[in-house]
Amino acid sequence: IKDELRSRHPRATIRLGSFGEFYCSSAVVVALEDIFRAGVSTSFEVLYVPGLCPFFVVAVLTLVIFDAGHKIPDLLHITWQRTSAVIIPITAALIFAQLMRAGVSAKIARPLVTALGRYGWTIVTPIFGALGSFFSGSTTVSNLTFGSIHILAADRLNLNPKKLLAVQTAGATLGNCICLQNIISAKTVVGLDTLESVIIAKTAKAALVFTAIAWVWGIIYVFI
Fold first, then answer.
1. Could you list the pLDDT tens digit for every one of the 224 residues in the chain?
2. Spatial CA neighbour of 4 closest among 28, 33, 27
3. What are phi and psi of 41, to 5 degrees?
4. 175, 129 contact by CB (below 8 A)
């Protein structure tokens, strides 16, 4: 059954111009090929993901066992209220992260590095780190995702790669305070009944303050 769940044929294809070629197979394998005409592709095997199908099976069984089918509209409404404020930024961050993992990062970074220059790149470095932690909840994953970009930038701008990575790590650490999954975990532990968007609005202020400190520290650390 493994091959059937990962089958890529037959499939429906849609051309998206310079964004690439999107297709969805009969086994619900979705993919984007030749992204930005860079020869890079990424795919997602929906039915083959271990947690996805069991989740829906358990959800359906729960509704049946507890006779909660009539509550579905209310549950969907409550879920939308609690997540609508963060769905768009999280979706954008996940798409960006997947593009980075697919190998687009180096191709995007080259013109960006040239445009920003030495000081400009040092300023955006902690932002990359914070963005990585925002969608992953992990400083390590953020560094793994964006580390190669900073090494490329250091080589092109004649900077110390270790110092750039240190600034990236500082930003990645700050990003944990606006990470949705960290906030949800903390809420669960302390039993706090507050919308995630409200908490992020507050923690984002602290993140901005410390990011500004990271900018100043980064410029001093990298160039002095």
1. 788 888 888 889 999 888 889 999 988 899 988 877 777 788 888 888 777 777 888 888 888 888 888 888 888 888 787 777 667 766 776 776 666 666 666 666 778 888 888 889 899 899 888 888 887 778 888 888 788 888 888 888 899 999 999 999 999 998 888 887 788 778 877 878 888 788 888 888 988 898 888 888 888 888 87
2. 27
3. -130, 155
4. yes
To the question of pTM greater than 0.70 for the whole model, the response is no
Relative to beta strand 21-25, strand 11-15 is: antiparallel
